[in-house]
Amino acid sequence: MGTLVLAAEEFTPPGAGLFNFPPIFGDVTKPMVLAVLSLIIVVAVFTLGTRRMAIVPGKGQFLLESFYDIPRNTMARDQIGSEDFKRFIPLILGLFSFILVNNLFAIVPVIQFPTMSRIGFPLALAIFVYVFYHYAGFKKHGFAGYIKHAALPPGVPVFIAPLIIIIELLQKFLFQPLSLALRVFAAMFAGHLIIALAAVGAEFLLFAGGALTIPAPLVFVAGIGFTFLEALVQVIQAYVFALLAAVYIGAAISEDH
C-alpha cells in the first residue's frame, strides 16, 4: 500500500497544458498548421480523385463516391429536402471532410493531436454555420417572416406564445451554435486526454519498478483500445456536426416551422 501511495504522489497526469503549444514561427502554432494541412489534404483528395471520372468507377473513384454519398444523401437531401439540397452539398461535404481529417489527426503517428480540441476551431466553424443558415432563412422568408418562422410554431395557444417565442429565439440564436461547437470540442478534448493518460500511465508503471510494472501492459493495451474507440468517436462527431448543420439549414428554409 505504501508503494502505491508513493507512486501516486510521484505520478503527474497530463492536464490542460497538453493542448498548449509554443509558436513554431511568429504566432503560428501546431494546431494552426494542422488546420491548413487538413484543408490541403481535403482539396487534394477531391481534386485528384475527380480528375478522371469514369462511368464504371475504379476502386479510388468508388471509395470517393461512397464517401460523397454520406453528406449528399444522408445529410443534405434527407435533412434539407429534395428540392433545395443540391446547392448546400459543397458546404455539408466540406464541413464533414474538414472536421473528419482534423479529428483523425489525433491518431496519426507523429501528429497525434486533434485540432478540434482547441475551442477556437469548432467555435469558428459553428459561427460560420450559424451565419450561413440564418442568412439562408432571411433570404427565403424575409426578415420579419423568418423571425416569425423561427420563433413561433404554428398552432401554439396564445396564452403560452410569449414563453415559446423566448425559448425558440434563445435556441435558434444562442444555444444551437454553442452546442454545435461544444459537442465536438468536448469529445476531442476528453478523448485526447484519456489516450495521453493511458500512455503516460503505462510508461510510468513500466519504469516504476517492483510490483507496479505488472499492470503496465494492461494499461498499454487499454490505451490501444481507447485509441480505436476514440477513432470511432472522431468519425461520429464529424458526422454529427455536419448533420446538425444540414438540420439547421433545412429548418431555416422550410415552409413549415
Description:
- There is one protein chain.
- With 257 residues, the protein is mostly helical.
- The protein is 72% helix and 0% strand.
- It is built from 8 helices and no strands.
- The chain is globular, with a radius of gyration of 23 Å.
- The mean pLDDT is 87.
Keywords for this entry:
single chain, 257 residues, mainly alpha, 72% helix, globular, ATP_synth_F0_asu_bact/mt, membrane, transmembrane, proton-transporting ATP synthase activity, rotational mechanism
Give a quick rundown of the structure.
GO terms for molecular function: proton-transporting ATP synthase activity, rotational mechanism. The chain is mainly α.
Secondary-structure topology with pairs:
Blueprint (H helix, E strand, L loop, with lengths): L1 H9 L19 H20 L9 H22 L8 H16 L15 H22 L1 H9 L9 H48 L7 H38 L4
Helix pairs in contact: 2-4, 3-4, 3-8, 4-8, 5-6, 5-7, 5-8, 7-8
Subcellular location: Cell membrane; Membrane
Function: Key component of the proton channel; it plays a direct role in the translocation of protons across the membrane.
Family: Belongs to the ATPase A chain family.
Structural class: mainly alpha
Instruction: Domain count, please report it.
Output: 1
Q: How do the helices and strands follow one another from N- to C-terminus?
A: HHHHHHHH
- Shape by Cα distribution: globular
Strand content: under 5%
Q: End-to-end distance, in Å?
A: 62 Å
Percent helix, as a range, is over 70%
Please tell me the overall pLDDT: 87
The total of helices stands at 8
Total count of strands: 0
- Low-confidence blocks of residues: none
**Rg over C-alpha atoms, rounded to the nearest angstrom:** 23 Å
Largest sheet: none
